[in-house]
């Protein structure tokens, strides 16, 4: 059900790869709620062509940008403002990639060149997006920027590897930049810490099936789905959450504050 929460708002959505992507689900919900959007992804991801289906449904242009290249981001903001005929109201950073995880390197055997690329793509990129927008004055007063993160930034998850370090940095960037952008333009910057969700990036983590099943059993409400995530993000882009900034917001069915659940104890009791 739509409530027109984003009527008149204009947003840029990074990271819709296929219909399972958190960004894909969010793009659909934002448009349902009345927003106009621009879609963007790395040129290599766009070559898959999937995003054109989403672009058609959302009546959105697709503007390529690699989040590690400042000129790409400048071009993205310039073209988006031309398209909208004005500044942007919200940005979703839904980008992540772990080179070591992808190449099967464990946390005790990291390739540091891979690690630097992971940090650049998954964490520093939020700073790059924010700094580009800040210097171009591309976001309207009271705008909202959200990046997606995972609780491995606070707790040890053995197979999440160097991505845990990237998420800790991502959350730190949101906090630190949130201060400066708040002072300058009342722009808010938050991270949303989402339940494990079966997407391309999520499923890349070793033993993802066990991981998602464990989280489901540990969360009083169960795991938050991609569509649940999209709903929550709509509220954060809307004017209903204007005073929320510099936060890491858990969207995980209660996982983060549960010590142990009966479902997990029952499963272990049977062993
Ligand atoms: N799926 C989960 O379990 C889960 C849980 C918590 C947080 N997250 C986070 O949500 C975000 C979105 O991931 P997803 O699960 O929807 O997976 P996904 O694979 O659908 O999305 C990841 C996106 O990052 C994009 N990307 C990678 N390198 C890029 C680059 N250099 N420039 C621009 N874009 C680039 C990919 O093309 C892809 O669209 C990520 O930050 C991820 O860490 C995912």
TrEMBL record:
Active-site residues per Swiss-Prot or TrEMBL entry: 150 (proton acceptor), 160 (proton acceptor)
One Pfam family from the record: adh_short_C2
Catalytic reaction equation(s): a 2,3-saturated acyl-[ACP] + NAD(+) = a (2E)-enoyl-[ACP] + NADH + H(+)
Enzyme class per UniProt: oxidoreductase
Pathway it works in: Lipid metabolism; fatty acid biosynthesis
Keywords: Fatty acid biosynthesis, Fatty acid metabolism, Lipid biosynthesis, Lipid metabolism, NAD, Oxidoreductase
Stored InterPro entries: Enoyl-ACP_Rdtase_NADH (IPR014358), NAD(P)-bd_dom_sf (IPR036291), SDR_fam (IPR002347)
Gene3D superfamilies in UniProt: NAD(P)-binding Rossmann-like Domain
Secretion signal span: none
GO biological process annotation, one example: fatty acid biosynthetic process
Top-level taxon: Bacteria
Residues involved in NAD(+) binding: 15, 66-67, 95, 167
Listed EC numbers: 1.3.1.9
Keyword Iron-sulfur: no
GO molecular function: enoyl-[acyl-carrier-protein] reductase (NADH) activity
Family the UniProt entry places it in: Belongs to the short-chain dehydrogenases/reductases (SDR) family. FabI subfamily.
PANTHER family, per database record: ENOYL-[ACYL-CARRIER-PROTEIN] REDUCTASE, ENOYL-[ACYL-CARRIER-PROTEIN] REDUCTASE [NADH], CHLOROPLASTIC
The protein's name in its UniProt record: Enoyl-[acyl-carrier-protein] reductase [NADH]
Organism: Chitinophaga eiseniae
Lineage: Bacteria, Pseudomonadati, Bacteroidota, Chitinophagia, Chitinophagales
């Amino acid at each position: 059900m739509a409530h027109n929460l984003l009527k008149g708002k204009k947003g840029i959505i990074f990271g819709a790869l296929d219909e399972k992507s958190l960004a894909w689900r969010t793009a659909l919900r934002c448009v349902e709620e009345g927003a106009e959007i621009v879609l963007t992804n790395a040129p290599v991801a766009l070559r898959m062509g999937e995003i054109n289906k989403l672009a058609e449904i959302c009546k959105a242009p697709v503007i390529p940008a690699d989040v590690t290249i400042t000129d790409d981001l400048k071009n993205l903001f310039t073209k988006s403002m031309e398209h909208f005929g004005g500044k942007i109201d919200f940005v979703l950073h839904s980008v992540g990639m772990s080179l070591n995880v992808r190449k099967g390197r464990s946390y005790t055997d990291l390739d540091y060149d891979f690690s630097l690329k992971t940090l650049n793509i998954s964490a520093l990129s939020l700073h790059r997006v924010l700094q580009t927008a800040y210097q171009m004055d591309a976001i309207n007063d009271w705008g909202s920027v959200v990046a997606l993160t995972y609780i491995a930034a606070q707790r040890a998850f053995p197979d999440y590897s160097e991505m845990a370090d990237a998420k800790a940095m991502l959350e730190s960037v949101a906090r630190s930049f949130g201060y400066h952008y708040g002072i300058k333009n009342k722009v808010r910057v938050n991270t949303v810490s989402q339940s494990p969700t079966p997407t391309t990036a999520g499923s890349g983590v070793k033993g993802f099936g066990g991981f998602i099943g464990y989280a489901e059993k540990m969360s009083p409400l169960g795991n938050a789905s991609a569509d649940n995530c999209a709903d929550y993000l709509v509220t954060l882009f809307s004017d209903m959450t204007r005073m929320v900034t510099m936060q890491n917001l858990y969207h995980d069915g209660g996982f983060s504050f549960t010590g142990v659940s009966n479902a997990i104890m029952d499963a272990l009791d049977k062993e």
